[in-house]
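Bug #2210: C-alpha cell dump truncated for Transmembrane epididymal protein 1?
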Amino acid sequence: MGTIEGHLLAAAFFLFYALYYSVLVSLALLQGQRVLKPPLPPREKQGHRLWQRVPLEGMVKVMFTLTGIFTEFFYPPGINRMKMVDWEDPQRPFMFTDAWHHITMYLFFMLSGVVDIVSQLCLAQQSRKLERAAEAVAFYVLVLLLLAHLENKSTLEIRVHVLFLVPTFLVALVLNIEVWVPDQPPLWVLKTWMGMVLSTWMLQLSVVMYSPPSGQPWKADNPKDMTFLSIFFCWHLGLGAALLAAIYGLCSLWHHHCSSWTATLDPSYQPCPTESNGGELDKLRAEDSGVCL
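Reproduced locally. Full output below:
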C-alpha cells in the first residue's frame, strides 16, 4: 500500500461497504425493522441450490483482500516482497515492514470474510455474534497496525494516520458493542457514518501523500498545511453525514414510491377464483363494488 494505487484499492474496499451498509440502514429505518439484516433460516429450511446460499458479503471480502495481498507482494510488476527477513545479512534484519503491516490488515479482513462464509454456509444455524466479533477483531487489528505504522514517519504522515485512527477505532468499538447489544439503530447509524468518514479520509490521505492537486507536496514544517489537515478532516465528518443523509433520502423516495404504487391497487378489486364453487362466483358478480379480473 506504499503507492497511491494501494491506498485507493483499500479506500474503495471500505467505501463499497460503507455505501452498502448505508442503504441497508436506511431501508431498515424506513421499514421499521428491529434487525438490520434478518437472520438466515436454519440450514434444513434453506434452498438446496448452493448459489442461493452463497454469502456474498463474505465472498466480496475474500476477493478484495486477496487482491490487496497480491498487490502488496507483487506491485509494481517485477517486485517481490514475500521475503520477510534478509538471511544474507549477518544481522538478519526484517524487510518490507510497511508491506507486511498492510498484508496483516488484509489477512484479518479476509478472516472476517471466511467467518461469514462458515457461519452462513457451513453451520447449522447462522452465528451473527461470531460474524460481528470477527469483523471487530479486524478493525482492532487495523487500529494496532496504524499505531505501529507511525514509527519513523514524518510529521505529516503521523498526522494523517492519527486522524485516520479516530473513525477506525469508533467502528471497531461499535462492532464490539454489537456483539453483546445487537440491533440498536443508533449504533447502525454511527457505524455507517464512521465507515463513510474512514473511507473518504483514506481517499484524502492518498491525495495528500501521493498526488496533491496543486502539484506541490504538503510540507510538514508548514503550520498552515498541518492546520488544514484537521480542517479537512472535519469537512470529511460533514461529508460523511451528508452522504448518509442523501442515501437515506433516495431510499425514502424509493420506499414511498413503492408504498404508493401498492396502495393504488383498489382493495375492492379482487381476482375471481377460477376453481371455486358457483355460489362464490355468483356472489362476487352480484357485488357492485367488486370487479372480476
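Output looks complete on our side. Residues 14 and 199 are 5 Å apart (CA to CA). Marking as cannot-reproduce; reopen if the truncation happens again.
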